[in-house]
Automatic annotation (TrEMBL):
PROSITE patterns: SAM_MT_PRMT (PS51678)
Keyword hit for Cell membrane: no
GO biological process terms held by the UniProt record: methylation
Species the sequence originates in: Mustela putorius furo (European domestic ferret)
Record keywords: Acetylation, Methyltransferase, S-adenosyl-L-methionine, Transferase
Domain Protein arginine N-methyltransferase: 4-143
Name of protein: Protein arginine methyltransferase 7
Domain of life: Eukaryota
Length: 144
């Protein structure tokens, strides 16, 4: 399998290393090492802002394991009692098992370091910068 991993890494390094790829995560066994965290908010009741919308921060990895990437999705809060999620259908359980929406694909940003391990004894963090460019509709991102 490492031959395929090396080929994919070279392709990502060549072109798309700062982009998220759509994947139907319900098909893959995976575990959340962190709790879901809101990164950007869009209020569709207002016009699109003329300037880029940027968010920076960090995510604490609370569960032990190997982290391969970050997953992004949208949640639409239609009314105070009605939310539609294109990602997790419910919060991860204590072990980090995920229940992904099978009718949507989630955006996966693969880390360039394939061996990001979270130790048993202490938390680690992943820093992020995400920016929405309203003129093009593009979202640039970086996770380290």
């Amino acid at each position: 399998v490492h031959i395929m991993d090396d080929m994919i890494k070279r392709a990502l390094d060549f072109r798309e290393s700062k982009e998220a790829e759509p994947h139907p995560l319900w098909e893959y066994p995976c575990h959340c090492l962190s709790e879901p965290q809101q990164i950007l908010t869009f209020d569709f009741r207002h016009p699109v802002p003329p300037h880029p919308v940027r968010a920076e921060g960090s995510i604490e990895l609370r569960r032990p394991g190997r982290s391969h990437g970050a997953v992004l999705w949208m949640e639409y809060h239609l009314t105070p009692d009605s939310t539609v999620s294109t990602g997790l259908l419910k919060p991860p359980d204590d072990k980090g098992d995920c229940c992904w929406n099978p009718h949507c694909k989630q955006a996966v940003y693969f880390f360039t370091s394939p061996d990001c391990r979270v130790p048993q004894g202490g938390p680690r963090t992943v820093s992020y910068t995400v920016e929405f460019h309203p003129h093009t509709g593009d979202i640039s991102m970086d996770f380290t």
